[in-house]
Amino acid sequence: MTSVIDTTALTKRFGSVTALHPLDLSVPAGSIFGVIGPNGAGKTTLMRLLLDVLRPTSGSATVLGASPRAGGPALRRQIGFLPGELRLEGRVTGRALLRHFADISGPVAPGTIDALADRLNLDLSRTVRTLSKGNKQKLGLVQAFMHEPRLLVLDEPTSGLDPLVQQEFLTMVREARSNGQTVFLSSHVLSEIQQVADSVAILRSGRLVSVSDVESLRVSAVRRVRVGITGSTPTLVRDTLSSLPHLTDLDVSDDAPSDGVPVRVAATIEGDIDPFIKLIARFSVADLAVEEPDLEESVLRLYSTPEVSDGV
Length: 312
Hints:
Blueprint: E1 3-14, E2 17-28, E3 32-36, H1 43-50, E4 58-63, H2 68-76, E5 79-82, H3 94-105, H4 112-119, H5 133-145, E6 151-155, H6 163-178, E7 182-187, H7 190-196, E8 199-204, E9 207-213, H8 214-219, E10 222-230, H9 234-242, E11 247-252, E12 263-270, H10 274-280, E13 284-290, H11 295-303
Parallel strand pairs: 3-7, 3-8, 5-6, 6-7
Antiparallel strand pairs: 1-2, 1-4, 8-9, 10-12, 10-13, 11-12
């Protein structure tokens, strides 16, 4: 599959501080590629390098087949960019500002700006300086999407948006993928990445922790389970379940069971749930609840692994 973004040992240092350690990354065309990590992980630095806002200390990158530095305005017009710290001011209306952006980005199909504004519930007649943070973010999204670029680079795009607008934005991202566009999306909110991304890269302290498809992350994720077991004792249930690897936070009710009253079990499972299901099948299961995989906790566990010091 053709790659839209490729990096080879891409590195950025600011003096003695390494903001991005040598990074090898490939983003397939027509995909939604998520980059997640806490603040300071290197997400914004990576995006700025790809857009030639920053120049790398070493290594290289290609975007849409061109070097970010050599691609110039012709390359920029094929990219829709929303920065993480969007600053929009001025006495002009939102509509006038978008016309200005359209002159820079290239042709915008008639009616596209109004259609996007309607979807995001954005009033284009208001002056930019009077807009709230959320409405300025909507304006930034319209300018990124309006010329239907081959590549969308979106840094923390849902910042300041209310939940309904966040869901509409995610729908827009899915539509872009269906249209053959590629979306490179960063966030520290894992839930929005897992809803739309095909693949996800996890960054921590400027290092690439892992790259995986979302389904693989889900399979290895953390689940919460609650079970009611009848016809057994708390001790037997506890001893049986304690033998299961990757089962933590096991809590078995100590109340003496009576007719029809189950032993209550709560636990956390990391990874494949099948061994747990087979184990509790030995008992009479009155009820079972399995929460959706908690990818947030799984990723936080990756963040918590010891870092490798590079002496910087």
